C-alpha cells in the first residue's frame, strides 16, 4: 500500500514539473516564487552546451538576457555550487531579469590538475 502511495506521489510531482526539450535530451525543472512575488523557472543539472565549431565558430552570441556566471570560491579545497542554493540567487537576480548559471568543478586531490 505504501509503495502505491509513493508511486502516485512521484507521478503527481513529475507531472507538474517543467520540461525543456533540448537536442541532447530533456531537462526537468520547476517554478520557484521569490520573496518579491516573481516566479523563477529553475533547472538544475543542465549538461554543457556544444562547442562553437563549424558555422558557429565566429558568430556573434544570440541576444537575450544578461547572464551571471557564479563560480564558488574555496581555494580548490572546499565548497560547492550547491551550497548557495537557488533561492537566494532567484530572490536577488530575478527582479532584475538576470539569468544565473553556477559552475561546479573538482576540488582537492582530484581537482583541476587531475584532468
Automatic annotation (TrEMBL):
Keywords: Signal. It holds the Pfam family COesterase. Residues 18-61, 64-113 form the Carboxylesterase type B domain. Residues 1-17 form the signal peptide. Transmembrane segments: none annotated. This is COesterase domain-containing protein.
Amino acid at each position: 500500500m505504501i509503495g502505491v502511495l509513493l508511486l502516485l506521489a512521484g507521478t503527481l510531482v513529475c507531472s507538474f514539473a517543467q520540461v525543456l526539450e533540448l537536442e541532447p535530451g530533456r531537462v526537468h525543472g520547476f517554478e520557484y516564487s521569490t520573496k518579491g512575488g516573481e516566479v523563477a523557472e529553475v533547472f538544475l543539472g543542465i549538461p554543457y552546451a556544444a562547442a562553437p565549431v563549424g558555422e558557429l565558430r565566429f558568430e556573434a552570441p544570440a541576444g537575450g538576457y544578461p547572464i551571471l556566471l557564479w563560480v564558488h570560491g574555496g581555494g580548490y579545497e572546499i565548497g560547492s555550487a550547491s551550497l548557495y542554493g537557488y533561492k537566494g540567487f532567484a530572490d536577488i537576480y530575478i527582479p532584475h531579469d538576470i539569468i544565473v548559471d553556477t559552475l561546479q568543478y573538482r576540488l582537492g586531490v582530484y581537482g583541476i590538475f587531475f584532468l
